[in-house]
Amino acid sequence: MFDVIIVGGGPTGMMLAGELRLHGVHVVVLERDTKPPVIVRSLGLHVRSIEVMDQRGLLERFLANGQQYRIGGYFAGISKPWPDGMDTAHGYILGIPQTSTERLLAEHATEAGAEIRRGSELVGLSQDEDSVTAELADGTRLRSRYLVGCDGGRSTVRSLLGVDFPGEPTRYETLLGVMELTAAPEEVTAVMTEVRKTQLRFGAGPVGDGDGLYRVVVPAAGVAEDRATPPTFEEFQQQLRVTAGTDFGAHSPRWLSRFGDATRLAERYRVGRVLLAGDAAHVHPPLGGQGLNLGIQDAFNLGWKLAAELVGWAPSGLLDSYQAERHPVAAAVLENTRAQTELIALDSGPQAVRRLIAELMDFEEVNRYLIEKVTAISVRYDFGEGHHLLGRRLRDVELKQGRLYGLMHRGHGMLLDQTGRLSAAGWGDRVDHVVDVSTELDVPALLLRPDGHVAWVGDDQEELRAHLQRWFGAAVV
């Protein structure tokens, strides 16, 4: 029997597998497709996801496969400068295709000891007080102590659980594909620049090394009855001509797909021993490029909590805090993508509001606020009243021993003690006690959870013990 079955081998599932393996959890990832995907839906990692990779020692791999950008336009495509003074040591966007992100996370999960089974399609599941049974299309049955559905917006796991997925249906559909264009790059750029002055749902960018291969997005003529069916190439060409006045001599499509602007949020993230993460728990328009990042961050929140439950030290309610913390974050993303959808509409009313928002973004505070929302570094979990850092993730800071994130690769909690007088004795298997100082921190000590969020600030040993028990369970005597 496995400890955890993960259904879905995308970025969320692979990130979760790697997190669980840090704690010795026996994991299998079931992926329906027999081969890794070729469709590039996401083009990059936002600040918080970059920090996540740094906290686990993976960032160098990602940097080697991507490109750093400090450009604006991430909120409704409104072009403003990248804000200065963001609360991070990683003030950039990392351009990297989703296929590379999935590959790197799969390699990490495999290196950590996770088992990945491709061509394994879930068709049924049942659970009792002690385990979950997964039934596969080939008749195989697998048992585990927990199961996590990371299987996308049309999640089989969510459907089998009967979890409601309320929200707003698709109103606008967009076509996405990779194909060759015979038009000169200068022509493509010129047409795109002109069209995007009004139509932000259109774009064409090279994905090869000067070989004419482009990733193209264009508004669809309407909403398809069966959105799971990809568009025809003729449909794609026609929409290019309608939108851009030319199809750029498009030919030899590598793949074609479609996506909508529906916003839906699962009512529950947990039913007994089965949980949901990533797009299985929430779907929204791709504006701001938040979807893949939101799923990775779900996995980062859930991984250590589920591992604690399995290993046996989780305090009461820790696993349920996954939904308590991540459900509101997803709801906020749905809200900001709804707002962005309105701001790119071509009607006169939305365009007037767009112009007003653009003026407000000339104020540095407004620009920074919106970008920090999209990049998820403004997320603050509700840990109650207290210091302004409480509930927030702590940025990477310089210590005498090196950088903070370099000390977090094992996935433990951390007592960062600038007083040298505190103790985490009894929790040494779960919490690293780091006695060090940083000129960037004006606090005596911090207790960090394994996901880097600040669980306590202070210098009182008894207060510290109470918070160690709250987040890391009973001390080992």
TrEMBL record:
One Pfam match: FAD_binding_3
Keywords: FAD, Flavoprotein, Monooxygenase, Oxidoreductase
Gene3D superfamilies documented for this protein: 3.30.70.2450, 3.40.30.120, FAD/NAD(P)-binding domain (3.50.50.60)
Keyword Hydrolase: no
GO molecular function: FAD binding; oxidoreductase activity, acting on paired donors, with incorporation or reduction of molecular oxygen, NAD(P)H as one donor, and incorporation of one atom of oxygen
Listed InterPro entries: FAD-bd, FAD/NAD-bd_sf, RIFMO-like
Keyword Ubl conjugation: no
Cofactor(s) needed by this chain: FAD
Domain of life of the source: Bacteria
The FAD-binding domain, residue ranges: 2-337
PANTHER family: BINDING MONOOXYGENASE, PUTATIVE (JCVI)-RELATED (PTHR43004:SF19), TRK SYSTEM POTASSIUM UPTAKE PROTEIN (PTHR43004)
Protein name as annotated: Monooxygenase, FAD-binding
Organism: Salinispora tropica (strain ATCC BAA-916 / DSM 44818 / JCM 13857 / NBRC 105044 / CNB-440)
Source lineage: Bacteria, Bacillati, Actinomycetota, Actinomycetes, Micromonosporales
